[in-house]
């Protein structure tokens, strides 16, 4: 028997002959984790589906299997295991065709609970056999899919659910221990006008009572608004259950903050219901993971203090994709720009140089100016830390460094564009301006 508190394993496979799916689950049997099968389904493909490509037929298999086994996996966590590696990008495909787009929309409700994993075809045996010898797509197959020309029978019905008396007793019983609910029951039961009892209510309860929002019916206090009339709760257990059912349960599906507020508003009332609902949504672990911000990391908009002397602060970046030249076939250039004088330094290097190689290139400049601050443009945190550690090792901690986020420094980017022109213009002196600046600079 399936255990809906344990994740399911969803094995799928498809080919030009049929679709196959095997539903497994790992359960503890005799103190040992054992993976066992729960259900097998298969069917032959329809004539129109025979024209699908390999990726489309795999996606079709997933959508069909989710539809047929919806009552097994809805609201549960499960893994989709397939031998088609392209399936892992199904949900994130940027330019899908009309079939893929329709299937993406169809499986959105499972997105938070579903993980797609790849498994080599040589060990993907259970679903592989099902799709090779698939059952005929006929009505006697429980997993069959009707052809498009078959008439669909529409059935209209109304679902009515009766709530047992135990539920109302569970709501009414805590009224006796809560001061405000006990006073309201006394005031509303006999239509009492005792001012002392009204003044004994807390401010929120007293204001709602003065506005005529409370009504007593069969021992239950109801809170009335313009568009709703809901039960009043005072039990912490019932309040937590209400929040869970309106946000976490399979009937809610982790709704947004606004929709959860609307659902709680039409379900129950207590004084701090709005504040607690917002806090519940903000502390939901699954919502925080699913709604994390994506995209590039942008730098902090802060103003850096301008240096007051040359070579106190420099920016650096790389110019790559250059034709190999020189005895060592250099194909890149490390561009260093002094922030004070806007003077560039060009150091030849290789595209595959490591962070420690870059640290060795910076070492001569750091020895001349021990108070140097370097801003690394477009580098990751790991590379920046390695370069700083390398230079700092040789200088025994005399280098001050700072990571520079993407897109904030334009000095090195602009200088790199004029690299070729700048180099040609200085051939008459054979010295760069920074060389002359270093000669005139401090000699300590």
TrEMBL record:
Sorted UniProt keywords: Endonuclease, Hydrolase, Nuclease, Nucleotidyltransferase, RNA-directed DNA polymerase, Transferase
Domain Reverse transcriptase RNase H-like as annotated: residue spans: 4-110
InterPro entries cross-referenced by the UniProt entry: DNA/RNA_pol_sf (IPR043502), Integrase_H2C2 (IPR041588), Retrovirus_Pol_polyprotein (IPR050951), RNaseH-like_sf (IPR012337), RNaseH_sf (IPR036397), RT_RNaseH (IPR041373)
Annotated ranges, domain Integrase zinc-binding: 238-292
Domain of life where this protein originates: Eukaryota
One MF annotation (Gene Ontology) recorded for this entry: RNA-directed DNA polymerase activity
Pfam family, one: RT_RNaseH
Protein name per the record: Integrase zinc-binding domain-containing protein
Protein's organism: Austropuccinia psidii MF-1
